[in-house]
Structure formats: C-alpha cells, structure tokens
Amino acid sequence: MATQNGTTAANLPVLIIGAGSCGLAVANGLKRAGISYKVLEKDDSVKLRSDGKERDWAVACHWSSPILAELIGPEKWSRILEVQVDPNTPTPELDVGKVLNGATGEVINELPFPKFYRFLRSRLRALISESIDISYGKKLSSLSYADDGTSVTAYFEDGTSEKGRLVIGADGSNSKVRRLLVGAEKAKLKQLPFNATFINASFTREQALFLRSYHPLATVIVHPDNMMSLLALLDAPDADKPEGWRFCFYISWGASVEEQEAEAAVMGARERLTQAKEKSKVYADPLKSAHAWLPDDHEAVYWTRNMNWDPSLPEHAWENHSGLVTLAGDAAHPMTYHRGQGLNHALDDAGKIVKLLSTSKGRSQSEIIDVYETEMRARAGEEVRLSEMNSRMLHDFSRLQESPLMKRSLAKGSIDNPQSEPTETA
C-alpha cells in the first residue's frame, strides 16, 4: 500500500467526489483491489427522476471497454448487454458506421467501429453502482489538508465532513473540485463557436423501422451548409415493439458565443424545436423526416453549448497538495462529443488511478499522483485539442475529409501520435 511522507494512510478511504461513470468505475476498481473508498454524490440518487423530465443520453465506449471490464469485474461485465441502448443484440467484433451527405443522403464514407458499445448512461450507472458505498446529498463546499500531509478533509453543504487519504474529483464538467483547485475563473469552460439542439423521441412502428434502417445504432450526417448531425438509437427495450424505441438526434451549427448567448436569453424548448425543424428542411432523409414527424409541442428538446477545458495548459495547472487531491474524467478534461472520446478517456483515468494505487509499493502517494497527472494531462489534453479540431472540421464541409473522425474513426490518439489501446481481458 502506498505511503505518504513516510506515514501510512491505508486506514483512510479514498474519497471519490461524484457518482458518474468515472467515479463509479474508480470505486469498483478500488473495491476489487481491497482499497478503502467512499463515493460522495451531490444528487439524491443515481436513478433518473420518475417524472420522465430528466434527460438521459447514450455514451460511446470502444477502445476503453477492456479497462471497464477489468475495473468492474467479470460478474458485472457479464451483464454489460443489459445497459446497452439495444439490450437484445450483442456487440459485434467489428461494425461499420456510415457518414452521410446531409443534403443528398448519399454515403460519403464508411468508418470501422471495432467493438462499438453504446450504453444508456442511466443504465450504466445503475449497473456499476451496485454494491458500491455511495453517500447521497453530499454537495461539496470546501477541502482542507492536514499539516502533516497525511490526510484531506472534504466538507459538505449539509454540515458533514469526511476525512480521506486522497480526494478524486470526478464531479463532471462543472466540477466543484476543479474550482477549488484552480479558482473559479480558471476553472471556467472554454465556449466554442457552435451549438446544437438535441431531441429525444419515439415514433410509429413504420417510422422507427425506417430510421433504424440506416444503421442499428448511429448514423453521422454532415451537411454542405456547415452543419453536423447524428441520428442514434437511444433505447430499444423490446425488439418486437419498434413503436417503443427511443431515438436521439441533433443538428449542430456554427454560431459565435455572442450569438449563442443572445439566443439563449430569449429561446426556450419550444423555440428551439421550431428552429431545429426549420434547419432540418434542407436535409435529406433520415434527418428530415425525423424532425417532420415531431409534433409542434414535443417536449424532449435540449439545447447545448459546445465547451471544453484543456488540463495540459500551463494556466490550468493545479496544486495536488503532495498527492492529496486530483481530478479525473470530465472534471479534468471535458471535451466536445463529435468523436465519442469522453467516456473512454474517463475510463482510462480510472484504470490508471486504480492500477497506480494498488501496485505502486514503495512509492509515496505524492509520487503516484504526480505520475498519474503527468500522463493524464498529456493524453487527455491532446484529445481535448484533437476533439476541438475535429468539431471545427465537421462544421466546415470543405475540411471534412481531413477531420480526425474521417482519418482515424474512433481510434485513440491522433495520426501523428497514435496511442496504444488496451486489449480485451474479460
């Protein structure tokens, strides 16, 4: 077990702030390694609210799937089909995704998708939260560090506190831990000049079968008018009832930050739906029909900004207090979603943290966290920049073929710096 400044900290738990996919993956790995931990989550549950108004979404897991399998163990991994958007169809060893011209519907490119899992986020969290020690309603307010360097204490808005050997901030893109470490101004996300309106919807049997005929899971659609879209399956619980399937689709377009903020001040979900329907009129199928079939009072409409935060920038460096605190997942490196890398790098973080804490005998915890952060900043920082470049190119039809998505599909790393991917172990 690692020591810190010569003093054992094995009797104190690792405090994981946030019960998202990254935090829960770390917790599973630590539990399997016999390392004490506690997950502290600000919400009241990992479950979605029962009123059906809380947004759910799918997450892509591909090169990181062996890491997830190792972290959660064979029993949970044997049930991984349960959490996929299509829980009735096993994931093939190799799939091929289509990129369509949004104006004509013609296939521009076909991309190899090795072991392409799409998880419904709510079901993934439900599975990997099983048998995990989670305290709910814990909104972090501050951190303090022992003078002797052996412990850190997390304080919460409900007046409680927890002492641990290490705090891992896995509390998402608007991380409180990140704000505490670098200050509110430096922790702010970088807003990019494009935005999107997402829509979740079900359709008639015939309509659902038509939409899914393009690809069972997801179809990328890029429009010559410099718009980018995705049509994807969100949930198909019953293979024989297409009318019960849910789809998620979006149109993303360029807009200055100032334009985005001006629209956000006056547009709600109804106005965003009208706007998306209007933009969809220049599309061919399947996206054109998907929007046209929606009633004008459809409610599951979600407008989003595109934002990121690069942990490798010098101005984003943080003090880890001799290995007492660090960041992981979206708290450390939120990135744009157009190449589906976010969850994969979050799981890579989780795997590396668990491996270092469980195998680095003779090293101080300060050394362990320095090793983790050095690798994570370089790896994930590159992907933040690569994903931003990819997003910009996907919104510029003249540069589409040079984009990382078209050149590398979903592979880890860049053409100039390809990174080794883990192999299947479970």
Write up what this structure looks like.
It is a single chain. The chain has 426 residues and is an alpha/beta fold. It folds into two domains: 3-84 and 117-189 and 309-395, 3-Layer(bba) Sandwich (FAD/NAD(P)-binding domain); 190-308, D-Amino Acid Oxidase, Chain A, domain 2. Helices cover 30% and strands 24% of the residues. The chain has helices at residues 21-33, 65-77, 121-128, 176-182, 205-212, 257-264, 269-280, 287-292, 342-359, 365-394, 404-408, and strands at 3-4, 7-8, 14-17, 37-40, 58-61, 94-101, 107-114, 117-120, 134-135, 140-145, 152-156, 161-164, 166-169, 190-201, 218-223, 227-235, 246-254, 301-308, 325-327. The strands form five sheets. A seven-stranded mixed sheet has the order 7-6-15-16-17-14-18, sandwiched between helices. Strands 9-4-3-13-19 form a five-stranded parallel sheet, sandwiched between helices. Strand 3, helix 1 and strand 4 (37-40) form a beta-alpha-beta unit. It starts with a strand and ends in an 18-residue tail after the last helix. InterPro entries: FAD-bd (IPR002938), FAD/NAD-bd_sf (IPR036188).
